[in-house]
Amino acid sequence: MSAEHTQTAPRTALPDTPLDPTATDPFAWLEDVDGDTALSWVRERNAHSAQVLGGPAFTETERAVREVLDSDDKIPHVSKVGEHYYNFWQDAEHERGLWRRTTLDSYRTDDPEWETVLDLDALAAAEGESWVWHGASVLRPTPEQLAAGEPRRHALVDLSPGGSDSDVTREFDLVTKQFVPESDGGFVRAQAKGGLSWIDADTVYVYTDFGEGTMTPSGYPRQVKRWLRGTPLAEATVVYEGTDQDMYISASRSHTPGFERDLVHRALRFYANETYLATNAGTPEQTLTKIDVPDSANVGLHREWMMVRLRDDWTLGKVTYRAGSLLAADFDGFMAGSRDLTVLFEPTPTTSLAGITWTRNHLVLNVLDDVKNLLHVLTPPTAATPGGEWARSELPVGGELLTVGVGAVDVVDSDDVWVVTTGYLTPSTLGRTTVAGPGETAAAPEVLKSAPSYFEAAGMEVRQQFTESDDGTRVPYFVVGRADLVSGEAGPAPTLLWGYGGFEHAILPGYSGTVGRAWLERGGVYAVANIRGGGEYGPAWHQAALKENRHHAYEDFAAVARDLVARGITVPAQLGMEGRSNGGLLAGNMLTQYPELFGAIIVGVPLLDMKRYSHLLAGASWMAEYGDPDTDEWEFLQRYSPYHLFDAARDYPPVLFTTSTKDDRVHPGHARKMAALMLAAGKDVTYYENIEGGHGGAANNAQAAYMAATHWTFLWNRLTA
């Protein structure tokens, strides 16, 4: 082993065989997140990565990325709250960020006048805490309050120390722009996973760590309570308590005038949940009525309507509604026993429902057809036309190989929507338009903001390609780069293949100044694989790679890697791949099962030890995705557990592991142990662990730029050597 790969970890024996779950884990000590010995190892590995990767190229990449992240020209996306439009902003001067607001007229200008509401940098300095913004929830005033001209003032602000998933909630006054002290009756929730949600100005739902036995095995709240202002949290009344096997319990209230409802949400596990209509929640007169839909379905309410999105087939009487469909029903009628359901969307072999957006009077369906967006507008029948059909029209926005996102400006009072378009080579634009009803033509979106071009895209192009997986499944992927490179005409080029393939999450085209500057401008090719396990083709695409079928995701990704080579775009020695989180598990399996396909691999915030994952942090919540290693499901889990698949006698490409000490979702022990295991066998390993950042990996732009420079420098060095 060269000096470059030396380390001070105890040189204990390696497992006897690659698949021996009974062997003593030689690196279990690295699961001690903040332990002195473990952190000493982390600091040594971080110093090693800085030494190996540091230099002019690293510094220039870090500078170029930081310039993008700190740019004053990026789009300040806003949320409408009353007459104000709120934005959270980070730049070079405001490292932790500003929560600020403006008016629509000012926002339309090139240089809006922003009023600072909360300065996180000043707060962090004053309190000696590395606060990371987790968002805010503003209470909608009652119709009577609005008629009286009362301002919106009650906000709940979530802040995370260092970027962890666990956070605190503090009440904030939008008029005085100050936190409401607990001594004055302000709502304050101590650090934990959970949250607060408004019932009214003096009452909230609280779901958090109430003490021993109140958190689920996944580390999320098991109880939700009703908490009255000015009373101790210990006196909050229980609304619902889940079992010790549930995943997450919470509650919320809809504040739409005339349709105020309270709902209790019980997540049994991923892809299985129950929703209850709560009456007189938290009082002796409380009643909970379960909304009678399949546990695997998602339920949403808007005014009188209930939307049901199906993950599995649902048979009612003689009718079977297909998985992936969207159904609508009158909510009160459904709760009274009616099962009059209208199919609003049904998938085809190439289409899936990417999302739905309600406005005051219309429903916008965002449909993917071979991973390309189409927008449809549905208008429900009114009280004047009961039993009538839902009228259908189109919202003609977007373009070829562009992603289009739609969001309501004010779902209670307006039919306006935000429209965001973006593509791999097309900087994002933010527009606004009014959704038109049947027989009307929607106006083209008014473009309010456009992001600048952060890299020179002339001569580049985007292509969508398809290949076949081992079982004949058609798998799409995108390729971006110089036209002569993506066509294969210019010969092999350094190529990064990125993927995820899990949790029904679709990967769509999007502009990245970082990818452009750090990779594409240098002559690299960027590819993205839409493998099974994701949501590109709806629930069936996801379910095809669950549990014992996980190997399909890895076979899909390997097929794309081979296709890039077959098209002449790259060769294995110049092909790198990267995955994060569930994608880190993908990367770990590419490393251990398909090492011959790649010249370098980046494994980010990963799951890797699938024997231990369900006992580490939030891991128990993912057993519906992967399986339970403490049962006979270990038989298939071990076949994609990289920590157990590693074979010291086998050759592996150079690998970079990255994680965060503050990641309280995916335990940093996964990356630490795998790196230590490979280092002990003399493999080419680079490791970097950010002390802050949570699961996102970075708590501010400086950390994000350093992390990005680490990634891109490692790839370029390894794939062009």
Automatic annotation (TrEMBL):
Residues 1-10 have a biased composition (Polar residues). Keywords: Hydrolase, Protease, Serine protease. Residues 21-430 form the Peptidase S9A N-terminal domain. The keyword Disulfide bond does not apply. The keyword Hydrolase applies. Coiled coil: none annotated. Residues 519-719 form the Peptidase S9 prolyl oligopeptidase catalytic domain. Residues 1-26 are annotated as: Disordered. Residues 12-26 have a biased composition (Low complexity). SUPFAM superfamilies: alpha/beta-Hydrolases, Peptidase/esterase 'gauge' domain. Pfam families: Peptidase_S9 (PF00326), Peptidase_S9_N (PF02897). Gene3D superfamilies: alpha/beta hydrolase (3.40.50.1820), Prolyl oligopeptidase, N-terminal domain (2.130.10.120). It comes from the Bacteria. PANTHER family: PROLYL ENDOPEPTIDASE. This is Prolyl oligopeptidase family protein. It comes from Promicromonospora alba.
